[in-house]
């Protein structure tokens, strides 16, 4: 008898089925995938989309079924964490149709004889995949197995001790045409909970209190956590924290979580982050933020740092067991890092002059337009300022003097304004004492006029600049090489064009081994590759 894994019908995540199972099995000490999967999975047609358009079709034409060499206890343990495995069954007989199935039963009836002789209660059900059968059709399929199959125990449909499945795998062309591919007579080992009882269903985005436009899909977040082999007590980092969607699964499994984020507005509920009214979770603070989600689920809050993934604030050392992240790749969010934007030279137009000095036409000139600097400090005290009106009676006789302390005072129409110890150049007595305002200093002691560059910082937020996706990936590998434990995993999403990428295009690093890569189609043109890399040294 062989154990058959029945995977969930999730077209966007079909290529994740085997990698997720292999990663989880390593936690049980099963490292050799050849021993786990007896079939050749490289050319398994059920684990890949035939063409990009399938992801937009209402029904998926294949349903992944894969044999696995594992015992019943391991199968039950897998179901407690796997997102994609629906059930495990023990197969007694199989065939391409009902007639071949009955022939195989007759050839080796002893295989199921102990089950038929048992007096324990049982239930017998027909489970169609990719098709819907009426009750009459199901009863007809069950009765067709007699007299070869006949159980001695009593039937109990509500709480049976044993459940037998007549598993029918149908192929559906989405045009109403059905074709039976394979049929199995099996006994149910275990199956995952349905609907709201499924372990990650309470974290679905539609019920989450705080969301952003790039919040990671709930199923994808849990799959990436499984691919990273996160377990209780692990230290897990997400350097692109956002609204915390990728850290929530790690917190659910009991890990100690850390997050890094460049945009503090998202963390504090400003800007793109928003409250989800469908969650029906009442918030006590002024606005929803990332702490709202962790309070909603009763999870331990992560440690948050304002950081740039390419400029880690951590000391170099083996700190984290896993790094899981969904970097911005310029489709729904810009790729940024800390740094000043490159300043472009100002340009303006001025009247052209020929050799004789006559004006005619315009020419483009680099630099600041002096006409726009009329009110700046650069020209305010200069006698050659182009903004001064020489015909103005107020400024016409304005002169400057120096005090003993090196201060500058001015005189208008022969009247000086100076300190007690200074004298005017005109030799006249001052009418009254005027104290000039002192220049304010910043925290470093620099005068106010030297702080003009701080305008580029945009209030209290540090500046950021747009960078390329490959720079982000290089920074991730650099971060992993500095703070990830040997054997720890770096799991991240990388954008590619559908049908135009190869394994060689996936970015790697000499300190890491590429363990898995799974394609997650987003539309007919773009996909995301879930890259799983393990640190070697």
Describe the structure in your own words:
With 537 residues, this protein is of the alpha+beta class. The chain has helices at 17-26, 33-36, 72-79, 98-107, 113-117, 135-143, 218-227, 248-252, 264-267, 290-297, 377-380, 393-396, 469-483, and strands at 2-7, 65-68, 85-95, 122-129, 162-172, 178-191, 210-211, 235-238, 256-261, 274-275, 303-306, 320-325, 336-338, 347-353, 359-366, 399-402, 408-412, 415-416, 464-466, 484-497, 512-521, 526-535. 18% of the residues lie in helices and 27% in strands. Strands 11-9-8-12-20-22-21 form a seven-stranded mixed sheet. It has a six-stranded mixed sheet with strand order 2-1-3-6-5-4. 27% of the residues are buried.
Stretches where pLDDT is under 50 for at least 5 consecutive residues are: 42-61, 340-346, 368-428, 442-461
Tally the helices: what do you get? 13
Biggest sheet character: 7 strands, mixed
Shape category: elongated
Helix content: 10-25%
SSE class: alpha+beta
Short characterization:
The protein has 537 residues and is an alpha+beta fold. The chain contains 13 helices and 22 strands.
Main features:
537 residues; alpha+beta; elongated; 6-stranded mixed beta sheet; 27% strand; 7-stranded mixed beta sheet; single chain; 22 strands; 18% helix; 13 helices
């Amino acid at each position: 008898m062989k154990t058959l894994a029945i995977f969930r019908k999730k077209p966007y995540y079909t290529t994740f089925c085997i990698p997720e199972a292999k990663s989880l099995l390593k936690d049980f000490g099963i490292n050799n995938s050849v021993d786990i999967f007896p079939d050749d999975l490289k050319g398994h047609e059920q684990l890949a989309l035939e063409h990009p358009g399938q992801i937009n079709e209402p029904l998926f034409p294949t349903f992944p079924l894969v044999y696995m060499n594992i015992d019943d206890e391991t199968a039950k343990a897998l179901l407690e964490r796997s997102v994609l495995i629906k059930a495990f069954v023990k197969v007694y007989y199989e065939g391409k149709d009902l007639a071949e199935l009955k022939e195989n039963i007759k050839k080796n009836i002893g295989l199921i004889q102990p089950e038929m002789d048992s007096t324990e209660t049982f239930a017998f059900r027909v489970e169609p995949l990719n098709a819907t059968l009426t009750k009459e059709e199901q009863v007809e399929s069950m009765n067709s197995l007699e007299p070869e199959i006949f159980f001695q125990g009593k039937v109990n449909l509500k709480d049976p001790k044993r459940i037998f499945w007549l598993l029918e795998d149908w192929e559906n062309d989405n045009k109403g045409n059905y074709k039976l591919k394979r049929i199995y007579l099996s006994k149910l080992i275990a199956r995952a909970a349905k609907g709201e009882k499924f372990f990650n269903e309470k974290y679905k985005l539609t019920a989450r209190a705080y969301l952003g436009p790039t919040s990671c899909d709930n199923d994808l977040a849990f799959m990436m956590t499984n691919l990273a082999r996160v377990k209780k007590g692990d230290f897990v980092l997400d350097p692109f924290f956002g609204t915390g969607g990728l850290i929530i699964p790690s917190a659910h499994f009991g890990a100690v979580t850390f997050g890094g984020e460049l945009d503090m507005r998202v963390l504090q509920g400003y800007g793109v982050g928003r409250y989800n009214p469908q969650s029906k979770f009442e918030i006590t603070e002024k606005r929803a933020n990332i702490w709202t989600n962790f309070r909603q689920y009763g999870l331990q809050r992560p440690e948050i740092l304002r950081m740039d993934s390419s400029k880690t604030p951590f000391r170099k050392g083996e700190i984290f067991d896993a790094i899981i992240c969904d970097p911005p790749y310029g489709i729904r969010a810009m790729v940024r890092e800390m740094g000043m934007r490159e300043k472009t030279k100002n340009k303006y137009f001025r009247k052209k002059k020929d050799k004789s000095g006559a004006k005619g036409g315009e020419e483009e000139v680099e630099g600041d337009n002096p006409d726009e600097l009329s009110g700046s400090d650069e020209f305010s005290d200069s006698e050659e300022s182009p903004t001064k009106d020489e015909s103005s009676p107020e400024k016409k006789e304005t002169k400057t003097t120096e005090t003993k302390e090196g201060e500058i005072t001015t005189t208008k129409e022969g009247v000086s304004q100076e300190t007690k110890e200074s004298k005017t150049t005109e030799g006249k007595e001052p009418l009254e004492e005027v104290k000039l305002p002192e220049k304010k200093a910043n925290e470093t002691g620099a005068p106010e006029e030297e702080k003009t560059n701080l305008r580029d910082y945009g209030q209290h937020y540090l500046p950021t600049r747009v960078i390329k996706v490959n720079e982000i990936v290089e920074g991730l590998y650099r971060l992993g090489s500095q703070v990830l434990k040997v054997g720890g995993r770096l799991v991240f999403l990388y954008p590619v064009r559908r049908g135009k990428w190869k394994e060689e295009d996936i970015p790697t690093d000499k300190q890491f081994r590429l363990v898995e890569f799974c394609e997650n189609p987003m539309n007919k043109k773009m996909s995301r590759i879930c890259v799983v890399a393990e640190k070697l040294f």
